[in-house]
Amino acid sequence: VQLQASGGGFVQAGGSLRLSCAASGSIFSINAVGWYRQAPGNQRELVAVINSRGRTNYADSVKGRFTISRDNAKNMVYLQMNSLKPEDTAVYYCNAVAGDPLYNYWGQGTQVTISS
Fold it and tell me: pLDDT tens across 71-113, in order?
C-alpha cells in the first residue's frame, strides 16, 4: 500500500483546510485509514480514523471541527478541517492499516500551519 498526502498549507486561525490521502497498491486489504499529526517536540497523535465500514473516530481535540471521509471509487480519504486553531499546527500524516497480518503504512507528511 502506498499513500500520498496533500493539501497542507498556511492559514489563519478560524480558517479551513482539506487534506487528501491517495491510496494505491493493495488497497483491497486496507482495514482502516487515519490521519495522525506531530507537532515539534510532541509525539505523533491520532487525529481521526475511518474503517472499511465507514465508522469514524476522532481525537477529542478535533471533534466537531474535523471530518474524515472516504471516496472508495477514487481510493481517496479526506480530512476536512474547520475552525482551525494555532494548536492544530503540525505535520499531518496519512496512515493505513492493511494486510494479513495487519501492518501500518505511512504516507509522507504534509505541513499544516495555523497563525493566530
Answer: 988 999 999 999 999 999 999 999 999 988 889 999 999 999 9
State the chain's maximal CA–CA distance in angstroms. Answer: 44
- Report residue 17 as a C-alpha cell: 483546510
> Where are the strands (E) in the chain, listed by range?
2-6, 9-12, 17-24, 30-38, 45-51, 56-58, 66-71, 76-81, 90-98, 103-106, 110-115
As given in the structure block, the three cell numbers for residue 108 are 509522507
CA–CA separation, 7 vs 114, rounded Å? 14
CA distance 93 to 19: 10
- The torsion angles phi and psi of 89, rounded to 5 degrees, stand at -60, 125
Which of 3-7, 52-56, 75-79, 98-102 bottoms out in mean pLDDT, i.e. has the lowest? 98-102
Which amino acid, 104? N
